[in-house]
Amino acid sequence: MQRLFSAFPNSWPGAGLLVLRVAAATPLLLGLIPCLEPSGDTRILCFGMAAAICGALLLTGTWTPVAGAVQVVLELGLTMSGANALETHLTRAAIGVSLCFLGPGAWSIDARLYGRKHIDL
Fold it and tell me: pLDDT tens digits for 17-41?
């Protein structure tokens, strides 16, 4: 994972990446709530579970490039399916792309496992 990123930024840039991860993970986690209603459609439940797992990975900063790529696929899938709020899904996909490129930051599990050996608060 260290080879994917030049560094795991700390201080203000690390805090900015933490805020970006939280902003990306929150709608994914909240999207699970309507999927849990008993509708009988397993595709909706599978989509909601994939979004929730992706959101949990982004929130904790685990496998951030993979989770960001999954977010891009999920959001572009919603865009192509004709879902409402096209600009919202495109913005969330852009956030996923930026997380793929920038990495998780110093305050993440990825930084602990693959980069920094201690987390400064």
Answer: 999 999 999 999 988 777 777 776 7
Find the Cα–Cα–Cα–Cα dihedral 24, 72, 102, 27, rounded to 10°.
0
pTM score above 0.85: no
Could you read off the pLDDT of 47-66 as tens digits, one per residue? Answer: 888 999 999 999 999 999 99
110 domain-assigned: yes
The span from the CA of 70 to the CA of 66, in Å, is: 6
For the chain, the C-alpha Rg in angstroms (whole number) is 15
Domain count, the chain: 1
Reported in sequence order, the residue ranges of 39-117 that DSSP labels E, i.e. its strands, are none
Residue span of the structural domain in which 90 resides: 7-114
